[in-house]
Design goal:
alpha+beta, N-terminal domain of MutM-like DNA repair proteins, Helicase, Ruva Protein, domain 3, four-stranded antiparallel sheet, 7 helices, 10 strands
Length: 266
């Protein structure tokens, strides 16, 4: 779940703020301790949901396949945490939950949170410039640089800028760094609007696609960067420069793949 989806979750939790938990259950072992506690506040930072109760703060990370449901249940699935209020029920599935301290939250850098009003593009540009030859696909997914950015946004931003995922950050000039940072922010805000309208997937140009939206050629589906997260790219519209290709082979011992892959899966 990416940053824009977390902002929507915070909005969905609005009716439960200031309300007491009347029952709590699920796989999370500390769930019973939440009964009769009031949900005081809910915030998001990057991919973290922060739920403030009377005597604890829960951090929920949705990992790769996490989700939440309000006043609904997944048949046959026990939620990681279920919170029942007089006003309704919130279920969290396939996520990591732990209690965090105020000191841990104070360490969050809100200036790198793509959905925060405190977002600071110049600061993020400086962080990108400091990444050296690190592949841009890894830089984008680094939550200390682009908090809230996930694999969908990564693929779409790289396609819009016509950058190969393995392009070294050091090869980006100041103009391209600025465009990368601004596009990440702009796409995240647009992602939020599209998802609120229930039309996110129809705006995808490359993620889980088979053919390039610009040239019509088959796309490459490949695990890229040191993180080996799945990338979709067009080898024609998003070429990897020869010098950059040599750098990738040196860093990760692999040859960039330029053969088309037609699979639409992740």
């Amino acid at each position: 779940m990416e940053g824009p989806s977390l902002v929507i979750l915070m909005e969905d939790l609005g009716p439960f703020l200031g309300k007491k938990v009347v029952h709590a259950s699920g796989v999370y072992p500390q769930a019973p301790a939440l009964v009769q506690q009031t949900l005081r506040d809910a915030k998001s930072w990057g991919k973290h949901a922060l739920l403030y109760f009377d005597d604890c703060i829960l951090r929920i990370h949705f990992l790769l396949f996490g989700s939440y449901l309000i006043n609904q249940e997944k048949e046959g699935r026990v939620p990681k945490l279920q919170l029942q209020f007089t006003e309704g029920t919130v279920n969290f599935h396939a996520c990591a939950i732990r209690s965090v301290s105020e000191q841990e939250i104070a360490a969050y850098d809100w200036s790198v949170d793509l959905m925060s009003a405190a977002w600071n593009a110049r600061h993020v540009e400086d962080l990108v410039m400091a990444q050296g030859s690190r592949p841009v696909c890894d830089v984008l997914m680094d939550q200390d640089i682009f908090a809230g950015l996930g694999n969908i946004i990564k693929n779409e931003v790289l396609f819009l800028l016509k950058l190969h995922p393995d392009t070294p950050a050091s090869s980006l000039n100041s103009t391209m760094r600025r465009k990368l940072v601004q596009e990440a922010r702009d796409y995240s805000l647009q992602f939020y609007r599209w998802k609120k309208a229930g039309e996110l997937k129809k705006h995808w140009k490359i993620f889980r696609k088979q053919k390039c939206a610009d040239c019509g050629r088959p796309l490459v589906k490949e695990e890229t960067g040191k993180s080996q997260r799945v990338s979709y790219y067009c080898s024609v519209c998003q070429p990897l420069a020869p010098l950059a290709a040599r750098s990738v082979r040196t860093l990760y011992g692999k040859r960039p793949t330029h053969e088309a892959a037609g699979s639409a899966g992740i």
